[in-house]
Design brief:
By secondary structure, this protein is of the alpha/beta class. 30% of the residues lie in helices and 26% in strands. It has a 4-stranded mixed beta sheet with strand order 22-23-1-24. Strand 8 and strand 9 form a beta hairpin. Helix 4 runs parallel beside helix 6, helix 5 runs parallel beside helix 6 and helix 8 packs parallel to helix 12. It is globular. The structure holds uridine-diphosphate-N-acetylglucosamine.
């Protein structure tokens, strides 16, 4: 497989405009949900990222038709296969959404161990417990799980944690169940709200999305629909992080500040300026950051997906910052890499103490997961000298080519093949 790296000369200020596309984390479950009706379902504004490509492969594998036109993806036909091939399921965490969707559409699903980022244990007990509560028989094999039910039956389900994926899966499973399902302690993320909007447009009867109690009244069948997902708040936040360390002024077209409160707030200070103007969020920074204390949590708290990109900013702040990760254990693979760029970071339990006074320089670093990789790119954009970031394939899972995005804003980022020698392997 071709391995690519980013070669980044740090230090350029960022100026210009960029258009924010639909959120990866909304689009993936929405594409899964599109198999719930044989009629065409169009999800608009889908990013060109490898996680979406992989999801299309999963949809092809279950026998539905997919068609891409620009950023719009249309899914049509009924699934004819209820097994997610192990190669695909292992490559991609979001194949887990096919659990709820296929179970609801076909009454059966066999899923091999899902993959994705290696961040913490990422168990699926909340998904399986919920599906079992809806009446599914859940059987675990050595490397797969089989869920089956003639027809699911609505009930109250208490989620022990507001898991985004489990909430989405259970909504998809319950949408055609007999009777009413209430998810109590549901995730409130805007991406969950996007999924519900699609399902409601398809004819589902769902209320309470965006609150901790989601009520789903089962319907007999669903129809086609065409919808726009919420914009990608993590991509918007990652661009803000880059502007914060490099200095500059960037207009983020389409970014939805109404769902970005917790992301925006730690960026605000004496040296930054944010306004909404003509459909854009305009973010300006002189590159001088104040120290911050940030903790991740379920929406509406600061998202775990912004932890690494924002920690890169903390490496440039004028003093000691803290970053506490409460959502995933072990989501700190970027820390040793940031340290090799000069960052003063001490990890104590789930908290990183980040001393911004150290000064950052270019280095050879390796992305080991998607958001950690984005954090390394942000750090390299602000650093003195040249960096190489390997593991670009992880970053491509969730970002359209970052060399193009940041290059268009004035950064020096070249995407190239990894040389045989010279760049540290992962
Ligand atoms: C989704 C997002 C991911 C984001 C995360 C948290 C997608 C494709 N991915 O992932 O980008 O980082 O939400 O906002 O939308 N947990 C359990 N048992 C379960 C399910 C989850 O213990 O059955 C735990 C996880 O280990 C983790 C926490 O709950 O500690 C949050 O996980 P969850 O919200 O489910 O994340 P994902 O849906 O996998």
């Amino acid at each position: 497989m071709k391995r690519e790296i980013f070669v980044i000369e740090g230090g350029n200020s960022l100026f210009g405009r960029t258009e924010i596309h639909g959120a990866k984390n909304a689009v993936l479950p929405m594409l899964a949900a599109s198999i719930l009706s044989p009629a065409p379902v169009t999800v608009r504004d889908c990013p060109h990222i490898s996680d979406v490509d992989d999801m299309l492969s999963v949809l092809d594998a279950v026998g539905v038709r997919t068609e891409r036109s620009g950023r719009d993806i249309t899914v049509s036909g009924a699934p004819s296969v209820t097994e997610i091939p192990s190669g695909l399921a292992c490559a991609m965490r979001s194949s887990v959404y096919m659990l709820g969707a296929l179970l609801s559409a076909c009454g059966e699903v066999r899923l091999y161990a899902p993959g994705g980022c290696r961040i913490g244990a990422r168990p699926l007990d909340i998904h399986f417990d919920g599906l079992a509560r809806l009446g599914a028989k859940v059987e675990f094999g050595e490397d797969h799980v089989l869920c089956a039910a003639r027809r699911l039956v609505g009930t109250d389900i208490v989620l022990r944690y507001p898991s985004v994926g489990a909430t989405e899966n259970l909504i998809m499973a319950a949408v055609k169940a007999r009777g009413t399902t209430r998810l109590i302690g549901a995730a409130r993320e805007p991406e969950v709200v996007s999924l519900v909007r699609l399902l409601v447009r398809m004819g589902a009867d769902i209320s309470g999305e965006g609150t901790p109690v989601v009520t789903i009244r089962g319907v007999e069948s669903l129809d086609g629909a065409k919808v726009q997902p919420v914009k990608d708040r993590i991509v918007a936040g990652t661009v803000m992080a880059a502007v914060a360390v490099c200095g500059g002024r960037v207009e983020l077209y389409g970014a939805d500040s109404s769902v970005m409160g917790a992301i925006i707030s730690p960026f605000l200070g004496a040296h930054t300026f944010l306004v909404e103007h003509g459909g854009a969020m305009v973010f300006e920074s002189d590159g001088m950051l104040a120290p911050t204390d940030v903790g991740t949590g379920p929406y509406p708290l600061f998202p775990t997906d912004m932890q690494a990109p924002f920690m890169a900013c903390q490496c440039y702040a004028s003093g000691m910052s803290t970053m506490r990760e409460t959502v995933f254990e072990d989501r700190f693979a970027h820390v040793p890499e940031l340290i090799s760029m000069g960052a003063g970071i001490a990890l104590v339990g789930n908290t990183a103490f980040v001393d911004g006074s150290a000064g950052m320089h270019g280095a050879e670093v390796a992305a080991r997961d998607l958001r950690g990789g984005a954090g390394l790119v942000v750090a390299a954009l602000g650093a003195k000298g040249r960096s190489t970031v390997s593991g670009v394939r992880y970053i491509d899972r969730g970002y359209e080519d970052l060399s193009v995005l940041f290059g268009s804003l004035g950064a020096s980022v070249v995407r190239t093949e990894e040389p045989e020698h010279g760049v540290r392997t992962e």
